[in-house]
């Protein structure tokens, strides 16, 4: 019925119209109820259109506490603060992910690494579909290691590339590898860069982002529990990455781009760099400075949302 | 210096003696301080031998709340309850992982997926090394999807296999793929099976565990946001897995086995099955039943620890 042939390597987004979320899954129509297990939410127990139908912007990031901080920040920016200034965790029935909402903005944590964000995205895309959301834009706001950039620089991803610098994501389906495109929205990238210029508070570049399956050996660190290569080999690899256009390294962007692309959702990746990997491996900057760095992607995406809503 | 040649595909454990943790990384000797960033711990700020030197058993699992519940359970079993019955999170400075300790037992969460557990294991293995621990056994206690087993059955992993049923883990190092062995300790597996017989409370089998990079397409589910195969193709894949000896599917065991193996640490994987994947994809069992299922690996490993300490 759906053979795993070349025709599926770069499928078109499974939607008739760019404005609605469409699911690339004909089986879901047959299900009476859909349990989003890792969110502890389900269509049989929750009214998705009532809870989420007005969502226009989704921001996702690794850390649950950072995503809670983001919802408080964006609420203040949009003048939508709650009276008690508290934002309940919509996924309180589980500790796998945390989710917060204020007005048209949803903020969701995704943990670390491709498998963790992929589980979250499967359930998030279904949530937005069940809620009948339209014109949704999704941002990943995160941290990363930079290459050849001062720490604290923000990178807006042009292309998410794999560990061999190719703009693709290898998805294993029923034991077979299929290749998916990691295209991101070019216009959205440019609009975010314009926002950064208007804010004028931190250095921002558009560059390629390398997405790896490992933080230590996969990113050429010398300080993991296992390291069987030399410092020269590490630096050669990072310089090759730089020469190919890579400006930062993280662990989620490729599957994020691939899944948003397939579901016809506009998406962008905005990460701050915590260190320059050409200078070292350990993140030894003070806690206070790191906290300030981590606010930069929030500020940039927050400004974009305000501007989109005509509030700048 | 350390060329990425075939000789490293199945390296021997990097240790002179099975009793101590040894690091396969000559670079670490040159570092004055080691910051375990994702634990918010460092050798410059924490006395690792004093804090962790007596650790003999480490239990790791995905969910932070489950790992907190485990430390309370094992404390009670070993008669080491704290006066206020509270166990502080040793990694309170971060929300990436949670860590608890009582007597010789350390309990650590690892999130979901290979990259997430790999970051934790790099830092855990370095922690145990810096603390000069000896004779350590590490258990992964988790949840999984079963194949051909009644829900609630416990699987002790014989071999962790990949999505093509091979007992290996593909690690990408500086952009190149190296193959690592996923050997687990056969004697430990048998001892755990004997413990389950002595407990006599739930069905336990020894079987192969398939470790995938994805929960939906990677495990042949029909209920993700993306699914381009038929129900027949799904069932054919799961039956092939069963015929090859696979009895459950999860997302962390392969890198867990590979890293413990390389570091010369005895390791076992004990997971409960939440559903039979030949019967369906959604986890629709009641919360109360799932909570009881999730205690089974804790009970089994807890009994093993008690027995090892001569308290049974």
TrEMBL record, chains A, B:
Metabolic or biological pathway: Pyrimidine metabolism; UMP biosynthesis via salvage pathway; uracil from uridine (phosphorylase route): step 1/1
Reactions it catalyzes: uridine + phosphate = alpha-D-ribose 1-phosphate + uracil
Similarity field: Belongs to the PNP/UDP phosphorylase family.
EC number(s) reported in the record: 2.4.2.3
Residues covered by the Nucleoside phosphorylase domain: 56-305
Function comment: Catalyzes the reversible phosphorylytic cleavage of uridine to uracil and ribose-1-phosphate which can then be utilized as carbon and energy sources or in the rescue of pyrimidine bases for nucleotide synthesis. Shows broad substrate specificity and can also accept deoxyuridine and other analogous compounds.
Pfam families for the chain: PNP_UDP_1 (PF01048)
Ranges in coiled-coil conformation: none
PANTHER family registered for this protein in UniProt: URIDINE PHOSPHORYLASE, URIDINE PHOSPHORYLASE 1
Example of a GO MF term: uridine phosphorylase activity
Positions of substrate binding: 219, 221
Any GO BP annotation: nucleotide catabolic process
Stored Gene3D superfamilies: Nucleoside phosphorylase domain
Protein name, as recorded: Uridine phosphorylase
GO cellular component: cytosol
The organism's place on the tree of life at top rank: Eukaryota
Keywords annotated in UniProt: Glycosyltransferase, Transferase
Residues holding phosphate: 96, 140-143
InterPro entries given in the database record: Nucleoside_phosphorylase_CS (IPR018016), Nucleoside_phosphorylase_d (IPR000845), Nucleoside_phosphorylase_sf (IPR035994), Uridine_phosphorylase_euk (IPR010059)
């Amino acid at each position: 019925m759906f053979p795993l042939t070349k025709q599926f390597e770069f499928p078109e987004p499974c939607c008739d119209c760019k404005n609605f979320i469409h699911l690339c899954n004909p089986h879901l129509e047959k299900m009476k109820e859909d349990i989003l297990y890792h969110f502890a939410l389900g269509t049989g127990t929750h009214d998705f259109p009532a809870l989420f139908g007005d969502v226009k912007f989704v921001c996702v990031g690794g850390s649950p506490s950072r995503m809670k901080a983001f919802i408080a920040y964006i609420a203040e920016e949009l003048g939508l603060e709650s009276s008690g200034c508290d934002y309940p965790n919509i996924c309180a029935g589980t500790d796998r992910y945390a989710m917060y909402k204020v007005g048209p903005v949803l903020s969701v944590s995704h943990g670390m690494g491709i498998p963790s964000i992929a589980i979250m995205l499967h359930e998030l895309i279904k949530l937005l579909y069940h809620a009948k959301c339209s014109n949704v834009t999704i941002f990943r706001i995160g941290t990363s290691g930079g290459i050849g950039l001062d720490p604290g620089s923000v990178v807006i991803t042009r292309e998410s590339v794999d560990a061999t610098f190719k703009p693709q994501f290898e998805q294993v389906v029923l034991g077979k590898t299929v290749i998916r495109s990691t295209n991101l929205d070019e216009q959205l990238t440019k609009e975010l860069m314009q926002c950064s210029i208007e804010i004028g508070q931190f250095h921002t570049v558009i560059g390629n982002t390398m997405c790896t399956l490992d933080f230590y050996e996969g990113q050429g660190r010398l300080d993991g529990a296992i390291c069987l290569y030399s410092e020269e080999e590490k630096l050669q690899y990072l310089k090759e990455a730089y020469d190919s256009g890579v400006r930062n390294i993280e662990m989620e962007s490729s599957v994020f781009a691939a899944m948003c692309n397939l579901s016809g959702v506009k998406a962008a990746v905005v990460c701050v760099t915590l260190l320059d990997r050409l200078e070292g491996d350990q993140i030894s900057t003070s806690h206070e400075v790191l906290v300030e760095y981590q606010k930069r992607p929030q500020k940039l995406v927050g400004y974009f949302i305000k501007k989109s809503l005509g509030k700048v």
